[in-house]
Amino acid sequence: MTGGSVRELVATHWWRTVPAVAAVIITALGDVSMSAVLPTLVWCVALARTRRTGLIVGLVLLGSLEWFVAPRVLWWSGPWVPSPLDLLWLYPLLAALVCETGAVVERRQPAGVLTLLAVVTLGLLATGIKVLDHDFVKPESEGVLPGPSGVRVVEGDGGCGYCWRDLDATGDRAGEVMRAHLTSRGFTPASPLGAERMCRHTGVFVPYVVCAELRDRAPGSVRVTWYVE
Fold it and tell me: What is the end-to-end Cα distance of the chain in Å, rounded?
């Protein structure tokens, strides 16, 4: 393919390329599974036919993806913030509906149903597995790690049964620094269970609650234990 042919192809199909590339960038920066890109790629590569509808639907898919990913990057919390579980099943479902609506607007029979149905099904299965495995798999960093600057953080071994991870932070005003760090990551004070506790609540439809317990061990040392409720 000559250089002129490549330029002509890009000029003709930029409306397919821009949403697809943007979706990859958003997903990579959001540190989420690359499977989140699939609905946008399926639409841009296989389903879209006209530039106007193709671009509009692509932008709607991008806006939806941003809603699911940006709060994760910014460590927002609250019932309107999609949880990691919502990203697994709700986004593919919404994206499938958007794609099929676009196909109908283009006055075609809904296309790519099996591909989109597979994406939704895999998302539902992944959600079910993640809901069930928090008793058997240690939680992720959940915003607790990496720790804040100004303290020395040493992670412990954690444990399972009801799985948890822990760390010891030492340094000047370590307890205060860790509390401020958790607050900046969306954790708020919660009812104590034998120790001071802070929790982070997210989830539009499927709640996802991460709690961290803080125990002051010395004036310059605090242990933080976190788990998914």
Answer: 56
How far apart are the C-alpha atoms of 25 and 36, rounded to whole Å? 11
Query: What does pTM read for this prediction?
Result: 0.81
For the chain, list residues with pLDDT below 70: 1-11, 107-116, 127-135
The per-residue pLDDT for 133 is 65
Residue 109's alpha-carbon distances to 43, 103, 104, 115, 186, in angstroms, are 14, 7, 6, 15, 44
To 10 degrees, the CA torsion angle through 85, 88, 89, 93? 140
Give the angle subtended at the CA of 148 by the CAs of 147 and 152, to the nearest 5°: 70
C-alpha span between 82 and 85 (Å, rounded): 8
- pLDDT of res. 29: 86
- The angle subtended at Cα 194 by Cα 166 and Cα 179, nearest 5°, is 50
Given this model, what pLDDT does residue 91 score?
87
HEC assignment per residue over the chain? CCHHHHHHHHHHHHHHHHHHHHHHHHHHHCCCCHHHHHHHHHHHHHHCCCHHHHHHHHHHHHHHHHHHHHHHHHCCCECCCCCHHHHHHHHHHHHHHHHHHHHHHCCCCCCCHHHHHHHHHHHHHHHHHHHHHCCCCCCCCECCECCCCCCEEEECCCECCCCEEEEEEECCCHHHHHHHHHHHCCCEEECCCCCEEEEEEECCCCCEEEEEEEEEEECCEEEEEEEEC
